Amino acid sequence: METGVVTGILNSTIALIFTWVAYKTGSYIYKYTPYSYPNARISAMEAKMLNSQKFNELAESRTLQNFVVNLEDTQYRDYLSGLSEYSVEEIERALEKSLAGTYEMLYKMLPKRSRDVFRLLLEEWDVRNIAAVVKAKLRGEPAIDYVSEIGLLLPKVKAMAEAKSMEEILVILEGTPYEEPFRKLILGEITASQFETELYRLYYGRLLDYALSRKGDEKTILLEFLRMKVDRLNIVTALRAKAAGMSAEEIRSLLLSGGSVDLEGVIRVDDVGMALAELDSTRYGKVIREVREELERNFGVLERALDEYILQRMVEVSRFYPLSIAAPIVYVLKKEREIKKLRAIVKLIADGVEPERIKEMIGDLA
Amino acid sequence: MFKPEEMVKIEVITLNRFKDALLTYLHESGVVEIREVNVESVQKDSPNEYHRKAASYSITISRIADFLGSYRKSSGGGIKAFIFPREKKKREYRYEGIEKLIKDVEDFLSVVEPEVKSAEGKISSIQSEMERLRDEIRVLEMLSLLDIEVEYLRHSGLVEVAVGFVEKPKFLPMVEELKKATENRVALVHREVSDGVLVALAFLKRDYSRVNSVLAKYSFEKVEVPEGRGRPRELIKEYAQKLEAKEKELDAIKKEVEKMAELYYDDVVFYRELVENERDKASVLPMLARTNMTFAITGWVPRIEVQKVLEGIRALTGGKAYINIREPSEGEVDEIPIKLKNPGWARPFEMLTEMYGVPKYNEIDPTPILAFTYSFFFGFMLTDFLYGLIIGIVAALLVIGHKKFNDGTYKFAYTLLWSAVFTMVMGVLFGSYFGNALDVVLQHISGDPNAQAWRIIDPLREPLPVLLAALAIGLIHLFIGYTAGFIVRWKNGDVKGAVLEQLPWMLVITGIVLFALERLSMLEVSLDLPAKAVFGAGLVLFAAGEVINNGGLAALMIISDFFGFVGTWLSYARLMALALATGGIAMVINVLVGMVWGIKFLYIGPIIGLIIFFGGQLFSTAINALGAFVHSLRLHYVEFFGTFYSGEGKPFEPFKSRREVSKLELKADGGV
Amino acid sequence: MDPIVYVSLGAALAAGIAGVASAFGVGVAGAAAAGVVAEDEKNFRSALILEGLPMTQSIYGLITLFLILLSSGIIGGGFKFADATTDNIIKSVILMGAGLTVGLTGLSAIPQGIIASAGIGAVAKNPKTFTQGVIFAAMAETMAIFGLVGALIMIATGVGF
What we know:
heterotrimer; A: Topoisomerase I, Chain A, domain 4; V-type ATP synthase subunit C fold; 3 domains; 75% helix; globular; C: mainly alpha; 0% strand; elongated
């Protein structure tokens, strides 16, 4: 062969290799760099989360004032310093604010391409708040008692709680995604529980759309997470409905789409026991079996077990993808769990429950 | 050496009334690792009211200590305090039971806590007041755009006034809708600001609810209008004065707290240590078993401490105790805690072993080997007499300053000192003094362009012999590892494992060495045949081992494990690469200095040259020492330990008090 | 091409690619270090050491640059391969190859930075994992070290000083 040809082949090979290396390097950097800061900071924050010893100490508080003092060397300090009185409501509100603060901080730290998920997750509280306020209004109870101090639409929710008529509430909701179902509700086209389902359906629809519009690992991780969330909601709804003796048709209308397990078999069977048997072959079979005994009396146990399952699964995912959106999601889940426990302790202390008993009960909550 | 400390199990049953004293004695002597008493259907002990108090006081006192600590004038500090820290004075405390201790703490807290709490409360209330004033000033600044008296903006009654922000695009539709909702009974003033529109609107009280829902719809952010009268601009001045007054108040209180800190800080730290130790002591209670009259405790003790512990317990209980000392049983081997035992010169290197994990009770403790090879590898990779000298001096100072504490700094400095000695030796062998700086100076003085310091080889010019040396060292290192593994496995009865997993590589390495000797023709006789025989035997044994262990996958594993071995071996090439890197950087610095040295104007050349020289060499020392440290450790953790060491033992964690500023006077020590 | 082009390309690519890679590596790890220090200043020392690890590749690049310049005579004397004879071209291409080897293997600084970043996070959560984090990060450097060894052999045996 001529030298020219050889040089040509060599040159193009080198060019090819260089392009490939540059592309690979670039995508590597693009993929991991944005998560370096937030995920390192998040693991430092996880180190500061309350451990079981701290929970034991909190359980020993006996008074709400001591409880607050015991939390003063933790990250909750800033939120608790502004308490006007040591009451259950005030403390709960402060804890809710700190959870909202966590979402907000994660939103600020994470890269633009995936951070909106935390805004969306925060919106779940809006959905809960709106549903709670509307239901309270329908029952004629003071709605403000049902508002959690967290959510993107919090000012609107509060205004809703203050509003005197359904029309005023409609005005407030105008322009938000929740306007349509509310309109149907006041026209009498749907019931209050269908309204709630509708809210969740809208909400999860947006979450799933968001996840589907992501790329690569982010899409995989978010979808995995959201599917489990949808499953959790569906399983609990289906079992509750089954226990209440609703028909398959009715139950089907309450379920959301987008989950990872098919619940068709579950809603067709006759009673809860058979429904549970149907669920046994799914990925949740193991967790459900573990709480089986208590479950028939109390579906809250199942919710907690499924939450724990989601958390553990996300921890696994975050080990697999250390520099990804999984670690922040795990952090938020852990934080939610921690705050749930703290709220439980606050209530138990206020009720004057003995420390030993509190320790037992929060141990069960884990 | 090579074996961890021998451990025996101790079991004590004695009367409940000795419990506190016994636990305190064990806690202070710190030689027993307490384990759970494993008897079915026996009640476990639990913390009593005093232990709970200790826990809650320790939080309170910690908080006081943190608070006072942040106001304490710092004394000393700096490099001197780092190298030669002063020993803190230990204050004696006469221990007469936890009840008395808690009472003493309560007495102390009853004096200090209210004072500190009130000061803390004052500071935080002033600070939040200041924060509020600042917020209001900000609001007023915003409101000054409207230039309307604030009392009107706050108006409420028949006519309500609301002030707030709304996003620009939402402003017009909001106004429209407001007018519609109130049938035009609304008046407003607005100013555009950077990110939105500032609106003040007045409406009738009876329209309140309707207006409110419209405002909520457009996410109208209400502003709390500050107290006071007059135009915002004048009011700002008033607020600024208030702010200043608060600031003075704050300063005064801070001074007070500083005095308080001086008065109480040492006491607070002393009591904190007392209660924290009580809290720690209480943590073993759930491991004890108890009956109405007696309690039982069990744990591991190093054999050499047994006599002392026995005497202590007997003196304490006046002999009213059942004590049983026994050898660990066969099934307990995995449970025995490991305390490394080495002669004084190797003891600080235990830190490096512990960082990876301690050996199991029946395994070899690699610390003595590691003490030598780690320092040697470090020296090989740094290879510069003067770098070694710098590190050696720093390390020696730290060793002297920290010897009495026997802390992490001391251990690390000690390992560094050894490493520095090897660095200097290797530096002399390779003729490296700040790289080629000495050569340059020699050439300059003697005028001979080829003048050089003495050396056996110049690694930069002839890297190949250095590479071969590095690989040879690697072979020796691996051989030691495989041999150690072989001995341990053989001794522990795992003959099959020893023969199939360690022996093949020992043979292969021997074969390689024989080949090398043959090639270098160092010996008279031909080694070709024995080399091939040994090497072949090794390979066959290795392949046989893979087939026995992995069955069907053997073919794959043979390939991957064989190249794994080659990779492990080649990994020792880093010895040479890092040695060259040190010389290289030093040379780069020297060349740079040589370039600027020539500038004669105002001696700029030599001045900048010296700065570059010393700055650069110090930087190079630091970065290369880091590299040598990391890679020397890596060669041990990954390559060397990979050949035989599990590091899966459980480290000995004695039940031990932490005393920095306090010292207990106990009955068992002769107190009454 | 002229020998000088090969030689200077080799030197530039060795220091350039390895340097850029080190910069990215240190950058990624540095972001993580800033994150953990923002939460707790106690993390500073371990974060600093982990952050510094991906720096070595740029040093290997720099050394190779100097060795190339030294062996081609650009430092200390004059350029030895000025004439485009076959022998000179071969030698200068070898030098370029050596530079490329170090430059490309120096890319290992980027994954090393990512490992260090994850390590910094892990240390913040559990300080005991520091050594393991360092060792994990040091694993990625092996390729760069092999590259440097290869380049040194190429320069010393193929060209000499």
